[in-house]
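@channel anyone free to eyeball this complex?
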Amino acid sequence: DIQMTQSPSTLSASVGDRVTITCRASQSINSWLAWYQQKPGKVPKLLIYKASSLESGVPSRFTGSGSGTDFTLTISCLQPDDFATYYCQQYSLYSTFGQGTKVELK
Amino acid sequence: QAQLQESGPGVVKPSETLSLTCTVSGAFISSYYWNWIRQPPGKGLEWIGYIYNSGNTNYNASLESRVTISADTSKNQFSLHLTSVTAADTAVYYCARHTYGIGLESWGQGTLVTVS
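replying in thread with the prediction:
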């Protein structure tokens, strides 16, 4: 099985900050990686697919990068609506989620 | 996007079988990959498995001995069966569609199943 390790588990930030979340795969997944945003009590929302492609309707302040085993999700200018938990997911071999990163208000 | 709706019992007794159904509209289940994902209260997302081409399946290795996912194309539904449940299986269960190369772009609203 492919393991996905996200860091940090929790990130404290302020509105306007640039925020970066990392995700590492236990083996190469090429670019078969997605990022999701989940707010409490809500359904996860797809933000980024194929490591760097922005899902339709997602603000351009969200960017994804990486390939192989190391990936990042960057929020360029954190907005109040962005405080949430973020998950990476590999879909190279079946599927695995990272453990999540909670972005909270500093 | 497709619309997905989970249905099934909200409470299951320990050692019994958890059974859920996902009804799909706006897409045919004979195409795409149809997934089950769960989320224990206060915890992260766990992929359970998927079905594609109406009958091919892949499962999370940690659950494989207890999980079956099946499809009913006549009703455009797919189902999850999880046997021998324990309290650790208490979670919100989501069904979701994976479009090849893109990811899980359509989700059901989720249903809480409590093992008690």
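from a first look: Chain B is about 0% helix and 55% strand.
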